[in-house]
Batch of 4 targets.
Target 1
Amino acid sequence: MARINVNPTRMELKKLKARLKTAQRGYKLLKDKTDEMVRRFSVIVRETKRLRDETEAEVVRVLRQFSLARGVMSKRDIERIFSMPSVSLALECATVNVLNVEIPKLHLEENAAEEKYPYSFAGVTSEADYAVQAAGEVVSRLLRLAEMEKATAMLADEIERSKRRVNALEYVMIPDLEETIRYISQKLEENERSGLTRLMKVKSMLSERDA
């Protein structure tokens, strides 16, 4: 706790009391905001973990299907059929405001071709068909996971900044203001007592002189 270096006057005392009131109100608002962000963060973390586990399982399934397809087809045929995209993707990026934090919001637009599989079925196994289908299904899940993980990281950073501000207000600014207000109040009281003592002494001297 450190006293602020100001002149011990009534004007400064009034200013400091106004600053203290503002700091206390700001502390309460910031503390409530931080608590709400922590609550939201906990919800998003649980959702992200669930989505990550599901997505990892889907990716494993896709890789297994690709492995099966490569096991029964030649490398040349695999590269040929998988280089023919059946869907074009367009990604739209926006943001949503969560407690003054701009969280990314991603939207995937799929434009499918007329043919679901843009290759001839002759010489292509069912394993390859399943691999193509599984890969298409996992893309949107991967995108959603990326969105959630970015939101988690951004909220974690904002929570850390808010906690530093809350601690600065609670343990530095507000105690310093209170200490300075207490010091100025005591100083003004001392000055008043000194002035009153001098006044009484002058009055006593005048009384003695008149007598």
Note: The two ends are 54 Å apart (CA to CA).
Target 2
Amino acid sequence: MVNVIGVGNALVDLLIRIPDNKIIEELSLQKGSMQLVDKEFIGTVLNKTSSLPKAEASGGSAANTIHGLAALGVKTGFIGTIGKDTFGEVFTNDLKKSNIEPYLFLSDAETGIAGTLITPDSERTFTTFLGAAGEISQKQIVPQIISDYKIFHIEGYLVFNQGLIAHIAKVAKDCGLIISLDLASFNVVEANLDFLRKLVKEYVDIVFANEEEAKAFTGKEPEEALNEIATMAKIAIVKVGKNGSLIKSNDITYQISPITAKPIDTTGAGDLYAGGFLYGYAKGLSFEKCGKIGSLLAGKVIEQLGAKIPPTAWDEIRKKIAVIESE
């Protein structure tokens, strides 16, 4: 089985369940979006939610995907930047205990925080203070780190530094890696549309998008968006929530049903879908089986608070994956 390395923002997630949309409106946030904020703003978020329960976990989109792959036994690595602080230690130790090779660079800035506001409908609104996470530099992405891997998974949030993500894609392609890109968030796509379309056409092999991101990327509804993305990348995946997902490659479209789940929090659903799909792809499984495994992981993570599937659930998941593989 081929191995996978990811690159992205090394963040600690603060998961905050809010009773309604009032706080989102008071903060002038767009529900369901991801906004980059400064240290003062994240402080305001924490003050406004000080009486509400919070959960803490290491996170970031690509890191969540890599954690899912590692839990399924794939050899993995992760590249990111952290601060010399307690949150940085939390992030590092989490990678190590999950058997993920850490390629972490230290910064004098504080480790990044993603304040995730979760409404009763399970929708997530992100306020992200990048801190040290935003200090990944081109000189840190070198062939010596990535050349032992076969698949390079990139989170779309890095597109706020267009020079960096272009460099990553070029180095990965020059090393012969398969490049996987998650489009991250519809507002990220809207703000960087021309650049992202050029990046996908020139470098990306696998594109993951949900229906809002796909529409922002193409201006079209899911199936037509899938068709357009498939003209740019070898493999296009559009996730359509409760309707499952669509996969297209070599002019063949696969419709994947979701699993039955009781959603609590959709944080990490797309990240774990990517992890499941890439696991199947790394094993050379059919696209239909890759999609089913992605759907399984996505369905399991939304039954938890946060982007991590608990260790107690993985044995059952591995058994279900074995059944999918044997079909």
Note: The longest helix spans residues 311-326.
Target 3
Amino acid sequence: MNLNRPFDVPPFARRCIEAAASQWGASFEHPFVLALADGTLDSERFAFYQMQDARYLEAFADASCIISTRCTDPLDKLWFVDSARIALVTEGELHAGYGEKLGYTAEDVAKIELTPNNRAYQDHMISQATRGTLVEAVGALTPCPWLYIDLGAHLLERLGTIEDDHPYADWLRMYSDEGFHDYMDQILKRLQRFADAADEPARERAVENFVTSARYEWMFWQQAWEKQEWPR
């Protein structure tokens, strides 16, 4: 998928996104995403997605904090801590807003059972943050924000304007917000710097981690679309 991105995409990030091209494009065509964009997504599916996503973001924040402890540059440490804060506070406000509209609370979110797809995605990120090299860890982390920002820009272009009465206007506006562009500049620069400091086998594993996370992103839409449960 060809997108005109308003942030710089360094060479290693291009290598990752090209390797994940088919998985990336699949998210844009998922029925959950299409229904969300045109406002026909039923509220039960959206609530299911939001509650699972709130729990996923806790793991994203954990992975960011783990990565911060492994950085030697204090500015990198601070940046990844701030990345965790954005996941929990900025995106958390979006979840709280929809919770008020759709009738679920933070306590309800804390009690849900993670879907198999959600748990697997979380385990992938935490495992790489803990055991992988820095480039492998950030390779696993990067697809989540990048895909959402790409999707937000794509859907805004498709819709033209986001009407106030659109049921998912807040979601669409958040992920098409230009304020995230600096975030992408910063994470992709760090991905490049960590790739430059790594050997080629580590870079290959980082690309594989990126592709795996892109697959999990598609699976995250799918688990919400089908309201996935564990086999009983």
Note: The chain has one domain: 14-225.
Target 4
Amino acid sequence: MKGDFHIHTYYSDGVFSPEKIVDLAIDAGLEVIALTDHDNVLSYGVAQNHIESNGLSLKLIQGIEVNTLYKEYEVHILGYFPNVEKSDFKNLLKIQQQARIKQTKEILALLNKKEGIKIKFEDVKNMVAEGGSIGRPHIAKAITNAGGTSNVMEAYKKYIHRESPVYVERKTVSPFDAVEVIYDSGGIPVIAHPYDIDIAEDLIKQLMNCGLVGIEAYHRKHSPAIVEYFSSMAENLGLIVTGGSDFHVPNIMNGQIILGKNFIPEWIYDKLIEAKRHRDLAG
């Protein structure tokens, strides 16, 4: 089935509502999608209700992308089909949300103290849907809105990085914790866009001990050579391959909606379903 298994909505750092994403996916000819907002799963119910209420033909996979840190590397873990009612899964989301709020408030305090840029926490919180995940893109946008920089990219360059005197690292969970919780909830843990982690192979092997099931080899930032590299790695390690556009916003340069992007093989859905069946049979 033609699908896209990495999509963000305005419940994290995407710009569109879950309903809008569903409509765009159908317009793009997709048959199945996974909504993978950062550190929350709220978009799934909204999107599913939109599909059912309007009699739309689109399969929806429950998904998430958990932001983690490991040795100063930012490692993102995708999770498919988790039982979101499991207590450990709920606790993981609670920890992640609290860390996001704490980081944001501390950065805003430092911006006020050291740079004279005054931003209310509510102004950042209001950039996401109710209960959604606030993060660095929202802080950067708030800095720009407050007149601290002329644009969001400048805000990132000046303030949203480790060397900035106003930046505070988010105290997030480890990738090992994320993989284990997703796996124990009956889900399929996958390492996201590993192209930017130069210790990816060693880390992937370690994460397999916690239940890692797959590698996101297909990604809009992965060249054909990188796709082949991680696909071969997955085959050698006995892991499945997944893929997605990692859609957040329309392509500003040409006005296109890059959703699905026609590069994700249709067999990826079958492999995901097969992996889920194996998980269910294993208990």
Note: Strands lie at 3-7, 32-35, 59-70, 73-80, 188-191, 214-219, 240-244.
